[in-house]
TrEMBL record:
Subunit annotation: Heterodimer of SbcC and SbcD.
A matching Pfam family: SbcC_Walker_B
Annotated region described as Disordered, given as residue ranges: 350-376
An annotated Gene Ontology molecular function: ATP hydrolysis activity
Gene name tied to this protein: sbcC
Keyword terms of this UniProt record: Coiled coil, Exonuclease, Hydrolase, Nuclease
Coiled-coil positions: 632-663, 688-750, 776-803, 843-870
Span of domain Rad50/SbcC-type AAA: 5-228
Name this protein carries in UniProt: Nuclease SbcCD subunit C
Gene3D superfamilies in the cross-refs: P-loop containing nucleotide triphosphate hydrolases (3.40.50.300)
GO BP annotations listed: double-strand break repair
Amino acid sequence: MKPIKLTMQAFGPYAGKEVIDFSQLGNRTMFVISGKTGAGKTTIFDGISFAIYGRASGEGRMGPDLRSQFAEDDLLTEVSLEFSLRNQVYYICRSPQQEKKKARGDGYTTVNAKAEMYMLDEDGTQKLIAANVRETDEKIKEIIQLDANQFRQILMIPQGDFRKLLTSDSRDKEVILQRLFHTELYKQIEDKLREKASLLKKEVELGMTERTRLLKGISTNKNTHLELELEEEILNVTAVLSLLEEVQKTLQSDVNEFTKKMNEQKIVRDEAKRKADAAEDVMKQMAIREQLSHKHNELKAREKEIEEMKSSVELAHKAANLQHQEQLCQRLKKELDSYKARLETDMNHYNEEKKKLDMSEARLRKEEEKQEQRDQLDNDLSRLINMREDVYSFSQKQAELEQIQVKKEDYQKSILHVKENLSQLKDRSEKQRKLLKDFEQAQMLAFQNENKLSQVESVKKQLLTVSTALKKKTDLHSEFKLKTKLFEKAKEISEDAHRTLEKIEDSWLKGQAGHLAQHLEDGKACPVCGSNHHPDLARVTESDQSADDVKIAKLAVSKSDQELLEAERSWMKVKTESEFHQENTQKLVDDLTQLVPGFTIENMDMFIQDYEKKHKETAQFLLEANAKVQKIPELNAQISTCEVELEKQNNKLNDMLDVEKQLSIQYTGAATIIHTLSSKIPENMRGKEQFDKEVVKLEKEKRVLQEALDTARRDHVMISENLARLSGTITNLEIHMKEKEKAMDIERNNFLNQLEKEAFETYKVYHAAKLEPIEIKKIENAIRAYYEEYRSISDRLKDYEERLQGMEKPDLNLLKKSLEKAEQYLTLLGDQHAHLIMQVKRNEEIAHMVKNINEEMKALEEEYDLVGHLSDITRGQNTYRLTFERFVLASFLDGILEAANSRLTKMTSGRYQLLRKTDRSKGNVQSGLELLIFDQYTGQDRHVKTLSGGESFKAALSLALGLADIVQQHAGGVSLETMFIDEGFGTLDPESLDHAIEALMDIQSSGRLVGIISHVPELKERIDARLEVTANQYGSKTAFHFTG
């Protein structure tokens, strides 16, 4: 940051507006500020600091205290600064909260703090980037990336504060160096390594738990050594896997033996099945023979019924030959009936039309007799048409007169309305101006409350964050208790499932001996021991468990083990999250305790309610005030519009008065023309509407008479034509009827002859024999199906009788019992065989999974050894108790000290050198960034706090210059283009002063601007640019003086 122009108004000792234009320095990069004590030298630094941060450069001077006592009451305190930063020019303007004399009456009113910030283009155009105190503070923090305290320690060393950076502890230096060198990434690396190490450790522990659970599920096959190994609290995985291989060999041998026995029993079972299947086939054939015999007898009994069906089909075919002739007779009868109906209808129409013709002739004679009346109407219409032009002219002028009268009255009303509008507009303008004044007052109040709202909102947000964190902490604690109970419950269920499996397996193995004994016979070898004698056979009891019971128990064990693993993982996850959240919550509470005086967790709800109330009240007030402020432009526009409207209405009134005068002249002319036309037109015809009605009336009467005559003539012609057409139609119908009657008699005689020919005695017999073609087809199909089924049943019955000739009925039940016994013994062997295979397979799966877990754990343990070690080192668990981030910062600090010592050596004639303290501090105190001073005279180092005032100033100045050098070398976000030093040179002897000045001269080549406040004459002589501050009874003034 490099200042360009500082403007102070009513600020400190500066009564009016004081402008310090740093651009007058030109290429000079160093200047001294001189003047008498109290003249206002330090106030220049206060002005720069206040413009940027809203705070003075010293701790004891706050915004409201900086108002000038020399200033006029109506002149507000204000500071503005134009500065450049990274090739961009900014302009910032601030005013503190202050008391202002009221414009009316006595007393003062409080004006709240204000701030605005602009970005300047190359042509000087300003672009607003922050409009209030909160936005300006945020924008300054964003672009400068230093707070006010860090600014004072690095860029501006105020009077009495030059030792702070030098003597600050490791924690304070860490905060400053973090901002300067952006080392947040290294802190993130520390956190990531710690999280990764914790996760790896938990994965290793879960792997060990899972491996133990799997090994506990091994089927030992009564191997005593393996059972003893599995009872150990910490398992010897290598020994267990070795013994498991021996158990697998024994189990596989048992599997092979049972496979052999099963194959032998399958041969016995298959032979029994073959005999049972053959007997069952014979039984089925005998049953089919009985069914065929029964069906054959049923078909034999239906022979008479089939003969009757054949006879009915023959009669139906004969009747079908007569149906065409019968349909022809019926069609002719229907056509004859139709002709008769039409003839009757047409005769009725003919008689009606004859009557209509008589009536139409009488009506036509009556209309022809009205010809004289029609002629009179023609004469009346001609007379009216000749009068039409005068009537229309009279009506037009009458209408014009009425329109002029209406317009004249309308204008008179409008004139009154415009006058009323003018009065209302004047009232409205006065009210709007009063309202504008009220809104401008609201604008001032809005500025006062913006900063207050920002502060309340920030504290409220932090309170709610802590409240949410505490609630989550409670929820996590409750969830941890619940997960602990679930984990313990899952563990108990898993142990019960394992004990139950052991009992069921033991019972099942004992029961196998009883099932095996059921199938032993004297003289035959036992499949287990090989003996041919069985003196004491084992017995099956109801309490023996089945192979299904064993499978169910194993599934229950597998399920409970999986649920235990999931419960343990869930418990571990909640435990880790709870511990991590508790640590973060405590940090939030500590921060809030420092921010809010009197805050405790117990009274949090009270504070939240209090700040919510403050926020709501301030926000509501600000909302209402801003609502008024937003209306100011609109109100100004309304006032302007109102004034324009006033002028417009005045012009309109004048125009309307002129129009009213012209209408009076037009009214007189129209009245004269109407008087002349009145003498030519009868009074009842003067209206255009009355005239037109009379014309329409006569035309209508004439049209009605003519239409009645035309209609009578047209009706007479139409009725005569209809009567002639109906007469011809009736004659044709009578001829067609005679022809149809003759044809029907001929076809009826033909039908009766054919009926006698086909041997139907009567029409009733013929009608009964008629069948539909589909019905005939159905009966014929039924007859054909009967003969085909009869032949098929006969042939199949004969075949089964030949096939079963000489055979006896077999004893199927005896053969099935023999097969069932063989099946049961084979199932028993199969269950034992499957159980052995299941044990072998389960043990193989466990061995495979354990080996995979061993490989995964080996990789995880190797990774944890590395990551855990790195995490410990980066978190400060090392010889020097340095975290990774602080180690990086120490490296930067070493570079700063190297640059600082190059100047300190010159200033102290080689006596002193700054060192970084590398040994560990006592206890758990953070270390690594504290400074020591090495004294060449004693050959020992000591703490920098032991330096004298002059020695401290030289060390602090060297450190500040070295810090600026190193920061400029790194492409960081902080720009150190300026340095201000307030006093301290007076503590130096002449030789040290020369060395200090030489060190300052050396940095001019870097282009950095250095401003020094000092009373030392040597500085004024050596530095050619001087900002002189002079004071009198009216306040202070400044001016640049150049000697070179």
